[in-house]
Amino acid sequence: MRAPTCVGCARVVLELEGQFEKLDSFYLEDGGPPPETAGIWHRRCLEESPHGEAWYRARLRNHVAVRRYVEVVTTSAWTVVRHPRTGETLAFARAGASLSLTFAEGRPRIVAGGAIHRVDEEYNLELDDRDAITVVQDALTSVGVFPVFALLEVLGVADRVVHPEALEGAVFRFDRSLHDEWQPGFVSARVEYGVFVPDELAPHVVRGRTRG
Question: Which residues 6+ apart lie within 8 Å of 3 measured at CB?
């Protein structure tokens, strides 16, 4: 599946947690967000749009009224909800962002205003720009890593990053078990990066999620 484009700016979206939002059409109800705003957004684009609060209300309502999540706390900027059976904990920001607050074990990196939680997962990337994929593939096979920020710059979306400190040192890393899946215009690798969690959400972080 090709990398999506942002509803707000029509540029490519890298689906890295904390950097994008998927606004599904099933959240739509009368009086809610405009239907044409459903889709994939850069988080920054959504926060800069006039639609963030409407999506906050729509997603929060769905999780509480339909999925039976329980509200844990509401601050001036965020509402935290938790599923009573699974313990899944999510946060929704009034500006439109969402965060899963379950992370693998490990000490976060403390930064101004919050902490960076490490993520290590498989990432599959397909682009119409085959030259960009070739650049990534060449780097992975020669030196084993390719900086995430370098790809964002190649794609012209580095200005869409929020909390860039979360992506400091972030890399795509060669994984031999994924190499056979490579094709022209497609690459599969591990990606290591961070997710910024503000201080006000820190008491609600849950440990133990494993990632693919």
Answer: 12, 13, 14, 15, 125, 126, 127
